[in-house]
Amino acid sequence: MTTPLPAPAFRLATRLATRRLLASLALGLLCAAPPAFAQETAQGLQDKAMRGDFLSQRNLSYCLQSGCLGLEKDRVRACAWRKVILQSGDRHVTDLDTANLEYVCGKLSAAERESAMRQADALARQIQGQRR
């Protein structure tokens, strides 16, 4: 027989489960967007990422990794964007960003990782050039 959770723990567990469900639903809606809207959204996301928007860079990397918003999966570019995020020095960079870099880039071959790092350096230079 299991012991029921105390009321505060139950409320917290329910709140967390609800948040996970809502996040999953939101991601599902994004990934199921009609192609014309998805392409427009993907282009907007790429434009914001190139202007140095931190959250757009995170989202773009995720979409390149998973194929959401109509973007084709591209693990090399996803890895490159993860590196750009870490190199940005943004105050919002966390250990999760480091873990994401290790996860995404860790699935690449040595040649693919090298290509991703070159792409990351080129992207970082472009972004810095636009900020000046």
Walk me through this protein's architecture:
- The chain is an all-alpha fold and 132 residues long.
- The protein has two domains: 1-32; 35-131, no CATH class.
- Helices cover 77% and strands 0% of the residues.
- The protein is built from six helices and no strands.
- It has helices at residues 7-31, 35-50, 54-66, 75-87, 95-106, 110-131.
- The protein is globular, with a radius of gyration of 18 Å.
- The termini are far apart.
How is the topology of this model organized?
Elements: H1 7-31, H2 35-50, H3 54-66, H4 75-87, H5 95-106, H6 110-131
Helix pairs in contact: 2-3, 3-4, 4-5, 4-6
Short description:
With 132 residues, the chain is mainly α.
If helices are DSSP runs of H or I spanning 4 or more residues, what is the number of helices? 6
| Gross morphology | globular
Strand and helix order: HHHHHH
Alpha-beta classification: mainly alpha
Please give the domain count. Answer: 2
Span of the ends, CA to CA: 65 Å
Strand count: 0
